[in-house]
Amino acid sequence: MSTLPPLPVPPESDEADTPPVRPRGRAAARLLPPTRLTGPIPWVIAILIALVVIAAAGGLALRNLATSASAGLSSAVSVQVIEPNPDLRTQRGEAAVKVLTGIEGVTAVRLVPEAELVAMLEPWLGEAAASGDIPIPALIDVELGRSAGPAEIKRIEAALAAKVPGARVDAQGDFLRPVNDALMALQWLALGLIALVALATAAAVWLAARNAFASARETVEIMHLLGASQRQISAVFLRDVVREAIFGAVLGAGLGVGAVWLLGQQFAALDSGMVSGGGLVLADWLVIAAIPLAGVLLALVTARITIALALRDML
């Protein structure tokens, strides 16, 4: 009886004797759990970015409005012939037109009809404006080829003084000076609001990054012992912080642009010539488009500084 040959004995595996491979360096940093900005911080960033977009659009619109109004009236002059006698007032008005037409640098002269003046004053004076009881000065609109500065006003006054007594010369731009000052104040207010919102955004990101780092502090210490560098650990935090900052910035920019568009539609419905000068141009929209990018950059810089300081204190 033949016997079966012995079964081959498998070689003993040496896996049991091999120690587990520990992650090191970048692999160790990847062991950090996904870091998220705590709480409603992304939504807070969205709200702050929306406020910045609205404030920036308002400031740019006010700047365009002031520029448009100043440009339209910078070369315009008003001449008033103040005379209670209607017949004499008419004669002096016509004489003033002749004098103004002959002055060098004057490009257009227009004697405003009395009926047009009555129509302009009627909303304030009522029927008294057309009664003739109130003397209405003769009004002449003058356009100059250059800006109506103090020297131009004095030159026109000197030319009128000899032939048209009682004539008063005013630069129309002076009438809008209080309005321009108010618009300038509103622009500074918008700029201050943008600075405050940017500061609030940085503070929110700083607080969120500190909380996120504190919650993963023990894991960071272990990863550092396994060989992960500060730069690799910081990159893990920044990756998630930037992702959520982008989410908040895009959402906030959409909300802000939507609000600006609705406000623009409301002002356009007024059909006012002065308000139409406050429209936004392509350069303004490019500035507005840069706001969410600036917000993400601000969040990135703030988070980087916060994580770097926290790692320096811990390690």
What report would you give on this structure?
With 315 residues, the protein is of the alpha+beta class. It is built from 12 helices and 4 strands, in the order ααβαβααβαβαααααα. The chain has a 4-stranded antiparallel sheet. The longest helix has 39 residues, at 177-215.
List keywords for this structure.
single chain; 315 residues; alpha+beta; four-stranded antiparallel beta sheet; elongated; disordered N terminus
Please sum up the structure shown.
By secondary structure, the protein is of the alpha+beta class.
Adjacency order of strands in the biggest sheet: 2-3-1-4
- Mean pLDDT equals 80
- Sheet-strand content, in percent, reads 5-15%
Any low-confidence stretches, pLDDT <50, length ≥5?
Answer: 1-5, 12-16, 19-23
Assign a percent range to the helix content: 55-70%
Number of strands: 4
Q: Work out the helix count.
A: 12
Radius of gyration: 37 Å
